[in-house]
Design a protein that fits this description.
Radius of gyration: 19 Å
Strand content: 5-15%
Largest sheet: 3 strands, antiparallel
GO molecular function: DNA binding; site-specific DNA-methyltransferase (adenine-specific) activity
Order of helices and strands: EEEEHHEEHHEEHH
Pfam family, one: TaqI_C
Catalytic activity: a 2'-deoxyadenosine in DNA + S-adenosyl-L-methionine = an N(6)-methyl-2'-deoxyadenosine in DNA + S-adenosyl-L-homocysteine + H(+)
Keywords: DNA-binding, Methyltransferase, Restriction system, Transferase
Helix content: 40-55%
Strand order of the largest sheet: 3-1-4
Oligomer: single chain
Structural class: alpha+beta
Number of helices: 6
Distance between the termini: 43 Å
EC number: 2.1.1.72
C-alpha cells in the first residue's frame, strides 16, 4: 500500500454526532466520507486531532455551526469542518499534550481489543461478520464508539477454514462480563480525555457545565425518540 494512503482521519458526511475514525492501515472510502491527512504522517498529531474531533467540546461547537438533517442528524461537510477551532499542538503545554495523546492511544487499543474479542466469539458461533461479507480476503473494519477514538483494522478472513464450536453458557457469560468491563474502562478514559480537551482549550467550570448540560439533554431526547 503506498505510503500516501496511510495515516488519515475519516469522518462521515452525515451522522447523529461528530465521529472521526483514525485509519493507520491505508484503507479506501467512498463518496459518503471525507478525509483529513497530515503531511508529516505523525501518528501523535493524528491522535491529538482525532481526540479533539471526537470530544464533547467539538460536538457542542459543531451543533451551533453545522447544518442539521431532520430532528437528530447533522451534515458534516467540509465548509463546516474547516471552521472548527482546532488549537495547534505547539500552543498546548507539552505534558498536557502528551497525556492527551497517551489517553487517546489507550482508548484506541481498548476498542481494538474489544472488537477482536467480539469477532473471535462470533467466529466460534459461526456468525457472519461485516468483514466476512467483503469481496476480498483482507477486510477493512472501523471501530467506533460514542465520541471515542477509532482505528481501522485489517484481518485475514480464515473463518471458513476453522471448525465451528458453539460457545457454552459459561463462555458467553465470561465474554459478556469482559466486554462490559472494557466498555466501562473506555467510558472512563473518554471522560478523562474530554476533561483534558477542556483544559487544553482553557474552558472554565461554567463553560464546561454548559456543554455537558446541553449534550446530556440531547442524549435524553435521542433515547426518547
Amino acid at each position: 500500500m503506498p505510503r500516501e494512503y496511510e495515516g488519515k482521519i475519516i469522518y462521515p458526511n452525515m451522522a447523529k454526532e461528530f465521529i472521526a475514525y483514525l485509519d493507520t492501515q491505508g484503507f479506501f472510502t467512498n463518496q459518503k466520507c471525507f478525509i483529513l491527512t497530515d503531511k508529516c504522517k505523525d501518528k501523535n498529531r493524528l491522535l491529538y486531532l482525532t481526540a479533539v474531533l471526537n470530544s464533547k467540546m467539538n460536538f457542542w461547537y459543531f451543533k451551533h455551526i453545522g447544518a442539521t438533517l431532520g430532528a437528530n442528524g447533522y451534515e458534516m461537510s467540509k465548509i463546516f469542518v474547516e471552521r472548527l477551532p482546532v488549537i495547534e499542538t505547539h500552543k498546548i503545554d507539552s505534558k498536557l499534550l502528551q497525556e492527551i495523546e497517551f489517553t487517546a492511544e489507550q482508548i484506541l487499543e481498548s476498542k481494538t481489543q474489544s472488537y477482536n474479542t467480539q469477532n473471535s466469539a462470533d467466529s466460534m458461533q459461526g456468525k457472519s461478520h461485516p468483514r466476512d461479507n467483503l469481496p476480498c480476503g483482507n477486510g477493512a473494519v472501523a471501530l467506533m464508539g460514542s465520541r471515542g477514538i477509532v482505528k481501522g483494522e485489517k484481518g485475514e478472513n480464515k473463518s471458513e477454514n476453522l471448525p465451528l464450536a458453539p460457545l457454552t453458557k459459561a463462555d458467553e457469560t465470561i465474554h459478556f462480563e469482559k466486554n462490559k468491563k472494557q466498555d466501562c474502562d473506555t467510558k472512563t478514559l473518554e471522560s478523562h480525555l474530554n476533561s483534558l480537551i477542556y483544559q487544553a482549550y482553557g474552558l472554565n467550570e461554567k463553560e464546561i457545565n454548559l456543554i455537558e448540560s446541553e449534550l446530556s439533554t440531547r442524549e435524553r431526547e435521542n433515547r426518547n425518540n
